[in-house]
């Protein structure tokens, strides 16, 4: 081959190499841009989701390099809608609420959510019917005719309240409903503007702790037979106990029920990214200072999940032997 022809071949090889590098760099930039920032929706600042989400967002940033912002929100139902509308990538949700969303039932009737999948279970969320000792409310039936905060319509707390009242032969029409967040609910109880509030959150809940610091609170128990009836009809509930001493003025154990808290994700994130996020959370949860961090383990991560796992989360849980 002549020297001139070698030069032409050489130039061609260099041009092709530059072209391939440019293409690869473009792909890497696109992937990096897609995963360099994530939004995680939590809940109200006086609940459990918000402080716990802040710690989890820090873990994700430290372990994966992906900047993750934990934002306050109206919690489960609104969070699912935000994921559906691609306004966020990650969100705290109740296991029952996200199951309703995927099934297209309750608040999501005729509008099933197709793009939301599971990362994993986090901890039990206790249904706390909070009041004060001077209201005379000692049972669920005593709520009849009282002013009670039940959360926003369609929210996880609202659905929990509705179902618990149902098991006791009551409906929302039997109480004077208020639709307040946790902080507003406990402030209303303290001020005497409402008599009680349903609060579905991990214990201890910040808003309830604040109330217990100023008044003697009481938490309404749910009787064993009602718990059995509730679990039979709605299997995502489980019996739970609020230990005496959890809040000021609470001097004995209270039997109630709980649903699960979980982290959900949109299916638009790649398998690799969600795998890294899942691994980061479940292998570094021992660094979480919030008391609910103790529940966040890889052994518990696949429990009580009623929707499909994201392929990245599924890969992690299969890798550690939690899923087959």
Description:
- This protein has 324 residues and is α/β, with parallel strands linked by helices.
- It has two domains: 146 residues, 3-Layer(aba) Sandwich (D-Maltodextrin-Binding Protein, domain 2), CATH 3.40.190; 135 residues, 3-Layer(aba) Sandwich (D-Maltodextrin-Binding Protein, domain 2), CATH 3.40.190.10.
- It has ten helices and ten strands.
Question: Layout of SSEs?
Answer:
Elements: H1 3-35, E1 37-41, H2 49-64, E2 67-71, H3 76-84, E3 90-94, H4 95-103, E4 116-132, E5 147-149, H5 156-167, E6 176-178, H6 182-191, E7 196-201, H7 206-212, E8 217-219, H8 224-233, E9 238-242, E10 254-266, H9 271-282, H10 311-319
Parallel strand pairs: 1-2, 1-3, 5-6, 5-7
Antiparallel strand pairs: 3-10, 4-7, 4-8, 4-10, 9-10
Quaternary structure classification: single chain
Helix content: 25-40%
Radius of gyration (CA) equals: 24 Å
Q: Estimate the global geometry from the Cα principal axes.
A: globular
Largest sheet: 10 strands, mixed
Secondary-structure-derived class: alpha/beta
Number of β-strand runs: 10
- What is the first-to-last residue Cα distance? 60 Å
Strand content: 15-25%
Determine the mean pLDDT.
89
Q: Give me the strand/helix succession.
A: HEHEHEHEEHEHEHEHEEHH
Corresponding CATH architecture of the largest domain: 3-Layer(aba) Sandwich
CATH class of the largest domain: Alpha Beta
Number of helices: 10
Q: What is the domain tally? A: 2
CATH topology of the largest domain: D-Maltodextrin-Binding Protein, domain 2
Question: What ranges have pLDDT less than 50 throughout 5 or more consecutive residues?
Answer: 6-11, 13-33
Determine the CATH superfamily of the largest domain. Periplasmic binding protein-like II
